[in-house]
Amino acid sequence: MGAGLMPMALVLAAAATFPRSSRRSEDNSAARLKRADLVRAPDPRCSYDRVLHYNPATSRREMDRPAPDCSDYKAP
Fold it and tell me: From CA 58, how far away is CA 55, in angstroms rounded?
């Protein structure tokens, strides 16, 4: 099956932080939380969209560009 016959796929990743000002990669212990911080907030650093195109040479779908480094969201 040729590349023209395979439909493209769109990947949407929406990341969020909770509390709003917290990141796993940073020490958050000094920050005093307020009630307003106790919400989920969008994380633009790890929210992205990518188009996957079929590569007939590898028989796999490949992203149009690399995803951002979101190692904060991986389990330790």
Answer: 6
Helix (H, G, I), strand (E, B) or coil at 73: helix
Q: Which two tokens stand for residue 52?
A: 């996957």
Kind of pairing between the strands at 9-13 and 41-42: unpaired
Q: For residue 4, what pLDDT is reported? A: 58
Radius of gyration of the chain (CA): 18
DSSP string covering 42-66 = E-TTS-EEEEEEEETTTTEEEESSP
Give residue-wise pLDDT tens across range 4-18. Answer: 577 889 999 998 888
Write the burial class of residue 53 (CB in 10 Å: 0-12 exposed, 13-18 middle, 19+ buried).
Answer: middle
- Number of other CB atoms surrounding residue 70 within 10 Å: 14
pTM (2 decimals)? 0.67
Residue 37, SS3 per DSSP: helix
